[in-house]
Amino acid sequence: MRRRYEFNEREIKLFERLNTPAKVQSFVNKLAHHPNYNDQIFYSPRKVVAERIADCVDVSMFAAAAFRIHGERPLVMNLCATANDVDHFIALFMENGRWGAIGKSGFAFLEYREPIYKNLRELALSYFEGYFDRRGRKTLRGYSGQIDLSKFDRLNWMTSEEHLDSIVNGEHANMRYGLFDNKAANGFSRVSRKMHTTGIY
Questions:
Q1: Residue 195 within a domain
Q2: Predicted local confidence at residue 180, as pLDDT
Q3: Does the residue 2 lie in any domain?
Q4: Count: domains in the chain
């Protein structure tokens, strides 16, 4: 019998239906974005189910909870950007020894990744070309490594919003692994007009 993790019967039935990464991504694709994204309001998986509203942090935790219901570790990772852009949380999953990810963003290229990446560095790099700010500057610089949300069970992250900011903004979410040195980053071109137009919605 599956552990309920304080979820009610309605919530458990939803999670049980989301029994593949593709189904989880399909579900979160249909969720509305927060109307006031810059307010940094984070929703627990329970509130995502109730409100049908979520952005990247909320989606990463929701997906991690869905994977946990099916016996997997609830793992997320922070993709770390330059100071002029925002970081991006994704949920991690593994199939056949390869990493994939669930994501949601106002930028089309920062969402789902098939489980084809040998390690988390490869996975993080797959987001590079599509990770740009509204001026077209490529801003991805590193990643946090995997964050196991089970370490925060004392905060009731799956059902309560009270302490989610401490998970999102804690030291564990800081950049532990850089992807480029300054010399390389200073030489990055801006994305094309076509990619910029296509990538933002």
A1: yes
A2: 95
A3: no
A4: 1
Structure tokens of 156?
């009731």
- Residue 113 to residue 177: CA distance in whole angstroms: 20
In a domain, 3, yes or no: no
Q: Is 40 left (phi over 0), alpha (psi -120 to 50) or beta?
A: left
Model confidence pLDDT, tens digit, residues 148-187? 999 999 999 999 988 899 999 999 999 999 999 999 999 9
* Confidence band for 38, pLDDT divided at 50, 70 and 90: low
Strands (E), the chain: 75-81, 88-95, 98-102, 113-117, 140-148, 177-178
The first and second tokens of residue 172, run together, are 């564990």
Is 66 inside a domain boundary?
A: yes
Cα distance between residue 181 and residue 39, in whole Å: 32
Contact residues for 157 (Cβ-Cβ < 8 A; gap 6+) = 44, 61, 149, 163, 164, 167
Range of the domain at 185: 9-199
Whether the pLDDT of residue 4 is over 90: the answer is no
Residue 178 is predicted with a pLDDT of 97
- Identify residue 123 by its one-letter amino acid code: L
